[in-house]
Amino acid sequence: MRHARSPCPSLVFLAGGVLFAALLVGCGPRESAVESGIRTATLHYGNGAEPQELDPHLVTGLTESAIQRTLFEGLVIPDPQTALPVPAAAAGWTSSSDGRVVTFTLRPDGQWSDGRPVTADDFVYSFRRLFTATLGAEFATEFYFIHGAREFHRRETADFATVGVTALDPLTLRFTLIDPVPQFLPLLFGSAAMPVPAHVLERHGSFAKRGTAWTRPGNLVGNGPFLLKEWAQNQHVLVTRNPAYRGPFPSRLEAIRFYPVEDASTEERMFRAGQLHHTKHVPFAKIPALRREQAASLRSAPENRNYYYVFNINRAPFTDVRVRHAFALALDRGLIVNRVLQGGQQPARRFAPPSTLEPPVPEQFSDNVTAARALLTEAGFPGGAGLPVITLLISNDEGSRLLAEAVQEMLRQHLGVGLEIVAQEWKVYLDSLKQGDYHLSYDSWGFATAHQFYSLLTTGNSASYNLWSDPSYDRLVAAAAATNDPAQRAKLYAEMETHLARVMPVIPVYFNVSNHLVHPSVEGWHANPLDDHFLPSVAFGR
Question: Is the pLDDT of residue 64 over 70?
Fold first, then answer.
């Protein structure tokens, strides 16, 4: 059958494999998604890529984070404006004088979305699941500072009673730590520390089995302010207000629809066409014009986030530290942030963002093309001769590609290096990282503390899929985590930066400034250092 032409012209475009249509002005009284959303208290939210999963223990990305925070609630959350810890599932907490025991009191009105009470035993169950090796939870290693967690996770003991997560009574949860950890509360922000419902998981198979149906619409039970209503793959995730939620942050919205749009230009067109209240990305090339023309919608703020490249140190030519140094020195970070990205980013000459380092530590990474060429020649590859084509693995989004193309040209001009860019869909990209299937890869993380950034590079870190292993670096990270003295911790951080710049397992490139388009009707959306927006606090102005 021949396709009939619409009596009203429309703008049609592709995003994440899905066609979106936006009516043009003059087509009658039809509401846009944005207008309808304002009327029905439904937020249309650009969310980046398709979620990898919705199981809190099995996700590591920002793509899943915004959805997770609507469905589940941890003990604490970052304050929407300051990003400092505030009570959530917990009503409060106390710490022992030596900092090694932290005790939480849960809210007495905390409920799962099926009406069952949330108890301290639910959190014990969840941490036992997190530390069960067969689950393969990527962030389990981040909690090795809990007494006995490392030994249980590595199967050196099968008795979870030896792990320092204990329910003293239904509303009292105690953590026993190996050393005082000043960063303990911010570490609980992440999805890995969120509770999961034992009675639901057990109904769908082994609690340590990945990919069961418990996270599907109709099955998922959470303790957050929203319910999972729909998950249409590569189209949207729809959450609706949870009437059973009794927490401290009741939702001002009736629903949120998350759209998986990886392409920033497509997302910006959707925003202009009235399809989105919020974009995850903003096309870098359009930021200067948007600052002039849509200042009320463009939201920019410094973010605790680093962007960096990772060497596969087990794969030639990057087994040679001289080659790694040459690649790192050949990048012009100033040109990247000022001429390519243009979003207010800062060149990264440390690994951890300076906003997380108080007191600050000296810069260690530098740009020096002359030194880069000399090192590559010394390694036996003058002018790049003899080097294989280097594969650079990135996720399939516009920002990653734009940066990769700039780096590709710099390495060609400065070193004579041939760089092949391999862009993969989010889930495939994560699998490739996990398998070490690359020469050079791109990564980015946002955290509340410097400790979390430095921990990414410790031996066997399962969240970052780190292939590098250096016991002396691991000892520095452990020592910094254990001290309550800010001056001593800064000294150890400076030693870590010096060590990283000498061994060069990664290339820090820039520190981010978050940029989003947010519809002027949206209230309660606050910029903060984590770029972490607590959507239940969002509402529409009248």
Answer: yes
